[in-house]
Every structure is written in structure tokens, then in C-alpha cells.
Write a structure and sequence with these properties.
Oligomer: single chain
Radius of gyration: 19 Å
Largest sheet: 4 strands, parallel
Shape: globular
Helix content: 25-40%
Strand order of the largest sheet: 1-2-3-4
Strand content: 5-15%
Number of helices: 11
Length: about 325
């Protein structure tokens, strides 16, 4: 489960307890580069990361951290999330982080949704550039902690082309063509369910306008990306679903068209885990749902409607999805 542990130790403890009590084993957390090395090159603030790593260990959970959001001094279109002007600066950060938490952070996700311009410094996404960044990060993390797992960035499902985005399947092909194969241990993907139940195939999503009329409008889009891995001789690796879920959003038009009820959200999340276990083993790895709610979200935030808890828990009880996931056989 993805959580937001950065700013408030007391809610971090609450949310880690929720994850542990639900019987889940992994927690995903963003480690913003700018929040750690923001004051200048080589000037690190480890106060929050030390606390988060210790808290996760206290609950016996495994930690996967997402690395992105460059500091101002690294350039890259700051404050937009974008690759630094010098990829070596990111490599140095990765080495420092992996050295400090050697054996304590289980996995590192290198960047987020680089097939979107807004996650690539506001520039046209470029898979070859991302692979160059991934290579640097992979080498430096393995140098510091050879047993750490390096996961490629979760790609966002989209059919939009440049300059705004590159479709996830096209981008993944371009990653392999740029030599990515030897520079990640696990492939990262995102798998929003949109309006479709988790068992619906990409063929069915593409054939039915009710579901969106394109292959990526379903949870099983993961299978299209897996097929690309196999095509490029990478079948021995696992896939990590780094974000997936269903929204209940009645407010934001860009999401409300595929909103489901809270009861459907609960049912679909459980069925997604069951489908993956039955049909994707042994190549499926960690699957990280979104979200344990950020304590600062309100209904105006679109992320609020994807969450399986409410920001003010325990004043407001958890959503049905949390209870069904807790009861799900593990």
C-alpha cells in the first residue's frame, strides 16, 4: 500500500499500523530528492528518512521508495519534476541514499511516469534519456547496496502522444531499444482500473466505448506490457504494479466518468489481487494499491477519491475497501 509518511510522525505510525493490521507486507513512500539534498550538492537532511526507515522496520514491513523531484540546484526544469542537467548528480544522490540505508530499504523505484511531459521537466518524454538516467541510478545503487532491488519507473497508461505524453507500450518498447534490459531488476508499471472490473481484457476495453474504447483503460493492461518484456527476451524478470486502484470521484470531470461506488472499489481491489495470483504467477511481484490517504487531502484533491481510508481516520472510519482487503486471504 502507498502511504504518506513524510511530514507527520504520528500519522505515519497510524498508517503503518493500518497496513500491518491489514496483513500487507510492503509500503511505498516517495523520497523526494529535493527534500533530502535541497540545500545544495552534498548537503543532506536525513532526519525524516531516518525516522521513516526506523518506523517501517518497527512494523516489520518492507519499504520501496520512489526517487524523483530534483532540487533547484540540479536544474531539469525545476520546480517541475524533471531529470537533472547532470545525471551524475542523481547518481551521487542514489549512492548516498543506498549507502546510508544498505540492507534496510528493500527496493528503489527510479523516477515516476517519465512517459508524461509533466514528469519529465515539461519536455517531450524521451525513453532514451530515461534509460540513460536509469543506468546511472542502477549502477550507483548496486555499488552501494548490491542486494537492493531496482525497479524501473511506473509508466502511466495513456494513449496520448507527443508533446504531452508517449503511450506506455510505445515507451516501453523504446526503453528496450535504448538498452534498458540490463539496468533494472523488476519492471515497474501502473495499472488503473478505470471503469472496468479487474477481469476485463484489453481487447474488451478497446471494443467497448463504455469502458473507454482503448486497450489501456483496464487493469489487465499489465499483460500488454508483459508481452513486450517477453518479446525482448526479458521473461525471467517480475513485474511490480507500483500504482493501481479505482476512483470514486464525483467531482473532477476527468476522473468522474470512470468513477465506481465505494462498494465496487472494495470488490475490484480484492478481485485484482485474486486475478493476479491466479493468472499472473510467477511473473507478478509486488502490487501496490493507492492509497492510504494523505492526512492533508480534502475532497478537492482528486487523490482523495482513490484512497481506501479517510484523511482524518479514526474520526471517520476506513472505507469499505480497507475492510475487504484486510479480510482478504493472504
Amino acid at each position: 500500500m502507498q502511504a504518506f509518511l513524510w511530514w507527520r510522525p504520528e500519522t505515519a505510525d497510524r498508517d503503518l499500523r493500518l497496513i500491518k493490521e491489514a496483513g500487507f507486507e510492503w509500503v511505498k513512500q516517495g523520497f523526494g530528492w529535493r527534500d533530502i539534498e535541497g540545500a545544495g550538492k552534498g548537503i543532506f537532511d536525513w532526519s525524516r528518512t531516518d525516522r521513516i526507515v526506523a518506523q517501517v522496520e518497527q512494523y516489520g514491513l518492507k519499504l520501496v521508495v520512489r526517487l524523483d523531484h530534483q532540487p533547484y540546484w540540479a536544474g531539469g526544469g525545476f520546480p517541475t519534476n524533471g531529470p537533472p542537467d547532470d545525471y551524475g548528480d542523481f547518481g551521487d544522490f542514489c549512492y548516498a541514499l543506498a549507502s546510508r540505508y544498505r540492507g534496510r530499504i528493500s527496493a528503489y523505484e527510479i523516477w515516476n511516469e517519465p512517459n508524461l511531459a509533466r514528469e519529465w521537466g515539461g519536455r517531450v518524454p524521451n525513453a532514451a534519456e530515461y534509460v540513460a538516467l536509469l543506468k546511472v541510478a542502477y549502477r550507483r545503487i548496486k555499488e552501494a547496496d548490491p542486494n537492493a532491488m531496482v525497479i524501473s519507473a511506473g509508466l502511466t497508461p495513456t494513449g496520448t502522444g507527443p508533446p504531452t505524453a508517449i503511450p506506455d507500450d510505445v515507451y516501453l518498447e523504446q526503453m528496450y531499444q535504448a538498452g534498458a534490459k540490463d539496468y533494472f531488476d523488476v519492471l515497474g508499471v501502473h495499472a488503473a482500473g478505470y471503469k472496468a472490473p479487474p477481469e476485463l481484457s484489453p481487447d474488451e476495453a478497446a471494443a467497448n466505448e463504455f469502458y473507454g474504447g482503448q486497450r489501456f483503460f483496464c487493469f489487465r493492461r499489465v499483460e500488454d506490457l508483459r508481452a513486450i518484456m517477453v518479446k525482448y527476451g526479458d521473461a525471467d524478470k517480475q513485474v511490480a504494479v507500483l500504482e493501481f486502484g479505482w476512483t470514486t470521484d464525483p467531482i473532477h470531470p476527468e476522473y468522474a466518468w470512470h468513477a465506481v461506488t465505494e462498494e465496487q472499489q472494495a470488490d475490484y481491489l480484492v478481485r485484482a489481487y485474486q486475478y493476479a495470483k491466479e493468472h499472473w504467477s510467477p511473473w507478478i511481484g509486488m502490487m501496490c494499491l493507492i492509497y492510504i490517504a494523505d492526512p492533508d487531502w480534502t475532497e478537492e484533491d482528486e487523490q482523495y477519491w482513490w484512497a481506501i481510508t479517510y484523511p482524518d481516520y479514526p474520526e471517520t472510519k476506513v472505507r469499505p475497501a480497507y475492510e475487504k482487503l484486510k479480510a482478504m486471504p493472504k
